[in-house]
Design a protein that fits this description.
114 residues, 5 strands, alpha+beta, single chain, 3-stranded antiparallel sheet
Amino acid sequence: MAVTLHDPGFNHAKKLIKDGKAVRDDRGAWDEHQPSAAQENAFIDEHGMREFGRWHLGVDDEMADDTKGHWKYPYGDFEAVHRCGVLAAESRAGQRKHTDIELAAAHLHGLLDA
């Protein structure tokens, strides 16, 4: 699996944080705040797969880009960046040696905590 940084998702997250669309929640809250599969499907139906992808920091180039499996490391709820989602992405990317994504998530983490 070749997972790399998704620059449009990273840039979208930075803009959302700059615009004040961020939730500074605790590390363990991602299980509660992460969109459900039904919420993801409804968002895709309304906005399309490309917009869905903007809410992710990574892409898997071995998966078709018109599938949810193509998009990795979600960080928000389709309205705001969640600190807990960024922390989860940072941690998982580090565990999986996706260094570019880990560094991008660490940058977002810094912006959120500033």
